[in-house]
Amino acid sequence: MTYLFTSESVSEGHPDKLCDKISDSILDACLRIDSKARVAVETMVKGMDEESHIIVGGEVTVSTDESIDYEAIARSAASEIGYTDHSVGMDATSTEICNVTVLISQQSGDIALGVDEGKGLHLEQGAGDQGLMFGYASNESENFADLVGSFMPLPAALSQRLTLKLSESMKDGSLPWARPDSKSQVTVEYHDDGNPIRLDTVVIAIQHDDLANEMFDGDEEREHEFIVNEIKEKIIKKVIPDELLNESTNLIINGTGRFVLGGPHADAGLTGRKIIVDTYGGMGRHGGGAFSGKDPSKVDRSAAYAARWAAKHVVASGLSEKCEIQLAYAIGVSEPVSISVNVNTQGTGTISDSALTEKVGKCFDFRPQAIIESLGLRSPIFSKTASGGHFGRPPDEDGGFSWERLDDEKIAFLKS
Fold first, then answer.
1. Which of 14, 62, 171, 354 minimizes the number of CB atoms within 10 Å of its CB?
2. Is residue 66 annotated as a catalytic residue, yes or no?
3. Whole-model pTM over 0.85
4. Whether 273 is catalytic
5. Domain locations in the chain as residue ranges
6. Does domain 2-9+157-262 have CATH number 3.30.300.10?
7. Residue 162 to residue 33: CA distance in whole angstroms
8. Of the residues 38, 183, 301, 312, which is catalytic?
9. What is the Cα–Cα distance from 11 to 390, expressed in whole angstroms?
10. Which residues are paired to 322 by β-bridges?
């Protein structure tokens, strides 16, 4: 018996991811001037026939008089993605046809009371809110050279890499006709033992110039054929491992035929609307809280990173093939209200889940301040997470994706 599982991804030019990028760019700007800045920012974008709108709202508290130019940050983030022409979906460089509205105030004093280190009812920094978070890891991608070390579900890993490659190819000129907005979807066929067999379907939707009229004398069929061939050769074959592709793999590229009008002009965008894309593509559960625009005192973000860090260590240590960890918090309280019984290896563990739960609790400190210090989350490292997924990517020299690094001492402890 076999079964299929599908995950999707969207590029940085998708309207929702554009909003995530703006929100996280504002967060990084705040952390550059105050490493303990409190930030909870959301963005909405919408393009109209004659103009576009970026609306930034939320709460920011920084302990400095240095001003933050939210409008400039929003315009720069959108422009960097490629939104510099209204015909593409937005011209963020134009103050005449792209309007930026900023609605930002300070964090509520009642929330800050329970969260500030050394203040309020708790001597240690409390969680910024109640909530539950999940971390997940799997070894199913470890047999493929380009994916070794990711410890991610295969459909999620491949769909994320496809959209990253689409954006990269637009910017480096490999796909000079491409526009910012794109999506991918990957369906993998599995044995009933959970091991991947092959790719059943790959779906790509990519926004493009009006090539029919610019290159093919109005012939939309030739335009579509050209785009399909370009994506097959320059994206799919560059990203998908050869052993997973075969003649039976169904490739669907721009299934509607054309995708010229995209971005905020075609669809409104909102921060935090792609949380499954951000995590494990549906293979692992999600607590519900979005990541982007939130400083690390918000456990929606930091504890999800910590849970992923711990789950990855469990699988990397060989104690299970899959691992899912749940954490739960109460606002203003530093210790998680729940860790035990929430390490779930889905029947693949070499020791019992309860024994593994105890080991994880001793190996990792899940208090918010401890997470922040262990993973270096006071640095401006977050805008790069806004697209391409928050997990399964190698840690970088600037401290980004620190929750993906493996600690030999922790692995040794878990094995002991």
1. 354
2. no
3. yes
4. yes
5. 2-9+157-262
6. yes
7. 35
8. 183
9. 13
10. 138
